[in-house]
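Task: sequence design from structure.
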C-alpha cells in the first residue's frame, strides 16, 4: 500500500465499474500541492478542476469514471480527513423560529449504497419502447458542463442523454428526449433517483437555543472543497 493512502468504501461498491476491485481503491488526504488546484475551483470550472484533484488523491480507479454519488462521498471524505468532521449549518429552527447554527458531524451522516444486485446497463420500459440506462459519471458531467455553456436551453436534456446507453449520437438522443412525454422522461429521471448512492445530507440536530431535535439538510458548498472564512476557522476550533 502506498504511503498515506487508505482504503475507501465507495457507496457504489464499484458495481458500475468493469474490472475494478473495491479493495484496490485507495485515497489519501489533501496535501499542500492539492490546495493550489482546490483554490482555483469555481462553480463554472468545478467539474474539470476537481477531476484534476481526484487524479492526484485516488489510486486503483480512473476518477473520471466515478459516479456522481461516489464523487460526493469522496468530497466529504476529503473534507473530514483533511480538515474537520464538524461543520456549522445556519438555518431557522422550526420549533423556536430563531435563526441558529447547528453543529453537524459529517462522519455520522448515513450513506446510501447501491444494492448488491445492481447491474448496468439497466433497462426501463417506456410507453412504446425500452431504454438502457447507466449512472452519470464525472466524465459525463464534464461534457454536460461544456455543452451547457453553449446551449443553456437544452443543458438538462443533454445530461439525461448521457445516462442513455445506445449507438445514437448525443445530439440524436437530445432530439429524441425532447419529444418524449413527461411521463417517459420522468421514468428516466427516476432511475437516477432510485439508485441514488451517496452520503445522506439529511440529518438530525439539536437546536442550541430550545434544545429541540429536528431534521435539517446539510447543503453542499464549495467550502467543503477548499475551506475559507468561518468554515476554515471553525475547522480548527481551539487550536487557533
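Answer:
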Amino acid at each position: 500500500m502506498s504511503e498515506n493512502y487508505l482504503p475507501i468504501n465507495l457507496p457504489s461498491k464499484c458495481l458500475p465499474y468493469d474490472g475494478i476491485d473495491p479493495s484496490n481503491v485507495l485515497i489519501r488526504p489533501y496535501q499542500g500541492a492539492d490546495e493550489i488546484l482546490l483554490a482555483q475551483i469555481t462553480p463554472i470550472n468545478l467539474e474539470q478542476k476537481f477531476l484534476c484533484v481526484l487524479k492526484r488523491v485516488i489510486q486503483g480507479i480512473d476518477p473520471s469514471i466515478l459516479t456522481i454519488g461516489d464523487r460526493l462521498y469522496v468530497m466529504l471524505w476529503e473534507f473530514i480527513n483533511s480538515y474537520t468532521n464538524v461543520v456549522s449549518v445556519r438555518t431557522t429552527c422550526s420549533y423556536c423560529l430563531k435563526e441558529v447554527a447547528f453543529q453537524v458531524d459529517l462522519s455520522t451522516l448515513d450513506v446510501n449504497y447501491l444494492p448488491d444486485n445492481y447491474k448496468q446497463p439497466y433497462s426501463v420500459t417506456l410507453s412504446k419502447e425500452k431504454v438502457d440506462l447507466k449512472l452519470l459519471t464525472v466524465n459525463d458531467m464534464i461534457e454536460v458542463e461544456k455543452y451547457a455553456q453553449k446551449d443553456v436551453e437544452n443543458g438538462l436534456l443533454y445530461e439525461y442523454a448521457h445516462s442513455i446507453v445506445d449507438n445514437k449520437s448525443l445530439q440524436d438522443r437530445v432530439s429524441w428526449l425532447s419529444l418524449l412525454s413527461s411521463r417517459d422522461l420522468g421514468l428516466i429521471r427516476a432511475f437516477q433517483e432510485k439508485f441514488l448512492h451517496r452520503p445522506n445530507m439529511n440529518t438530525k440536530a439539536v437546536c442550541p437555543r430550545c434544545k429541540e431535535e429536528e431534521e435539517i439538510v446539510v447543503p453542499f458548498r464549495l467550502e467543503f472543497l477548499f475551506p475559507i472564512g468561518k468554515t476554515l476557522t471553525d475547522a480548527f476550533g481551539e487550536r487557533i
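Residues 123 and 205 are 39 Å apart (CA to CA).
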